[in-house]
Design brief:
The complex is a heterodimer of chains A (about 230) and B (about 280). With about 230 residues, chain A is mainly α. In chain A, about 80% of the residues lie in helices and about 0% in strands. Chain A has a single domain, classed as MetI-like (MetI-like fold, Orthogonal Bundle), CATH 1.10.3720. In chain A, helix 1 packs parallel to helix 5, helix 5 packs antiparallel against helix 8 and helix 8 runs antiparallel to helix 11. Chain B is built from twelve helices and ten strands. In chain B, strand 1, helix 2 and strand 2 form a beta-alpha-beta unit. Classes of the chains: A mainly alpha (about 230), B alpha/beta (about 280).
Chain lengths: ~230, ~280
């Protein structure tokens, strides 16, 4: 194997980033998606547009504005610095924030779709029988929209594994902290180290393919694909 | 006229107009002409190169032809790799001399055209803190800095030079964990300028080009690092095969006093003698 320790570090770092981002997104994405699926207010379409923005914005745009926001001179960056004593740019925390924004639609949209297909009469029936909110959520909603949850989690994870443009703008290419796989690959290519680049690129490709194959296979086997 | 004839005529005219408007310009733009010059330059030299191009085009304006110069910038290593893969540049302004030399050795560059066109100045920039921290000693500034932005030493000559300075100051090991690496010198500057690093090692030319620096002179401290380099940053250029007469004319223009004045004004030193 032609991989150096720095490549293994990059792999591990990327896995961590993807895992943490996915967990955060599932926690904040589920309530958001639920509200979007059920809301009738006009404000909902504004929020929906904001959620969908990272789908079409070039990641470098997200990274560009994040770099400005992270700066100690700005309100957000300055507050963070005052609260935690650390700057946000070029840190893992900064990458997590960037990834959460970048992968937001990939988690929220499958969840929203799943919730929209959910029959709300079931909820009302459960309520008349005395089931509380958490009871209804964990014992009724999640089991019936399980596929949406799994899709959202896998897509969020895979999408963050492949993040590049945002990290390029706010990462600073620091091994062990912000040098994720896609950046390490880019670095090798620019330095003409094509052999190492091949290892990383092929590895990422194989991983992504297996993940997606699992996702679609899972969805296909569990009955109707629409739910 | 018959109805059918009218329809045919209309379709024909629309088709011709469509062709004129959409297809002809793109066909023309795709074929490299004698009147277009494609130059690839290391990021640090871009601002000065843009001024030089403008001056060159002004100089040529009396002639009838409409000349155009296209400039692409990236770190020198990236451009070198692109030219090896066949990128259609006619001139390459590198931030070092080894990439142009390698291109001549690989057969892509014209041997006669190899020349050092400028000598770069490496500088340290830092923000002056309000609490009287105005030390001009690079070692002290770098030791106190929490984050140091440099260009990537793997691919950018100014990044390599920055590492050289850190080594010669004896603080390379302790600084390593504080380094923030930009793809090229322009990104290193962006990291510093946006406030995310307190210190950066960049080329003097970037500072000259940055309008914000002029406005904020009082806030930024600039220290020349030339004394800490074993060799100054020699920037070399090479013409890429196949050459064109426009490329040669531009190279001739680089020798004129106007061009030299522009380079000096952009923060570069002139080479002592021709290679």
């Amino acid at each position: 194997m032609n991989l150096l320790p720095s490549d293994i570090t990059a792999l591990w770092l990327t896995l961590q980033l993807a895992a943490i981002t996915t967990i955060i997104l599932m926690v904040i994405g589920a309530p958001l998606a639920w509200w979007l699926a059920r809301s009738t207010s006009r404000f909902a379409s504004v929020i929906e547009a904001m959620v969908a923005l990272p789908l079409i914005l070039p990641p470098t745009v997200i990274g560009f504005y994040l770099l400005i926001a992270f700066s100690p001179d700005s309100f957000f960056g300055g507050s963070w610095l005052a609260l935690t004593g650390q700057s946000l740019a070029f840190t893992f925390s900064g990458l997590v924030i960037g990834s959460v924004i970048y992968s937001l639609p990939f988690v929220v949209q499958p969840l929203q779709s799943g919730f929209q297909h959910f029959d709300h009469k079931l909820l009302e029936a459960a309520e008349t029988m005395g089931a509380g909110r958490f009871d209804r959520f964990f014992n009724l909603i999640i089991p019936l929209t399980r596929r949406a949850f799994i899709t959202a989690a896998l897509l969020g994870f895979a999408h963050t594994m492949g993040e590049f443009g945002v990290v390029l703008m706010i990462g600073g290419n620091i091994p062990g902290e912000t040098q994720v796989l896609s950046i390490a690959l880019y670095d090798h290519v620019e330095a003409l180290d094509y052999q190492r680049a091949h290892w990383l690129a092929a590895g990422l490709l194989a991983f992504s393919f297996v993940l997606l194959m699992f996702l679609y296979g899972f969805n296909r086997n569990k009955g109707i694909r629409a739910g | 006229m018959g109805y059918l004839l009218k329809v045919c005529l209309k379709t024909f005219i629309t088709g011709v107009l469509f062709f004129q408007v959409f297809l002809v310009p793109s066909v023309v733009a795709d074929t490299p002409t004698e009147n277009t010059l494609s130059i690839a330059t290391a990021s640090n030299f871009r601002p000065v190169l843009e001024q030089l191009s403008e001056a060159f085009l002004q100089h040529k304006k009396n002639k009838e032809k409409n000349y155009q110069i296209n400039i692409s910038s990236a770190s020198s290593g990236v451009i070198y790799a692109q030219i090896l893969q066949g990128a259609p540049f006619q001139l390459f302004f590198s931030a070092n001399t080894s990439f142009p030399e390698k291109l001549v050795a690989s057969g892509h560059g014209v041997a006669d055209s190899l020349v050092t066109y400028a000598v770069g100045k490496l500088v340290l920039v830092s923000r002056k803190k309000g609490n009287g921290f105005d030390s001009e000693d690079p070692a002290e500034i770098l030791s106190r800095a929490k984050r140091i932005a440099i260009a990537n030493p793997r691919i950018a000559p100014y990044g390599i030079a920055a590492m050289e300075v850190l080594e010669s100051l004896g603080i390379a090991d302790e600084s390593r964990s504080k380094l923030v690496v930009g793809n090229n010198i322009a990104q290193a500057w962006q990291f510093f300028h946006s406030g995310n690093t307190d210190v950066a090692i960049v080329s003097a030319s970037l500072i000259y080009a940055s309008k914000q620096f002029d406005q904020n002179q009082a806030r930024f401290l600039k220290v020349d690092l030339s004394a800490y380099l074993k060799r100054p940053v020699q920037q070399g250029l090479v013409a890429i095969k196949p050459t064109s007469s426009l490329a040669q004319q531009f190279l001739d223009f680089m020798e004129t006093p106007t061009a030299k004045k522009i380079m000096l004004g952009g923060g570069y030193l002139l080479p002592q003698k021709r290679d």
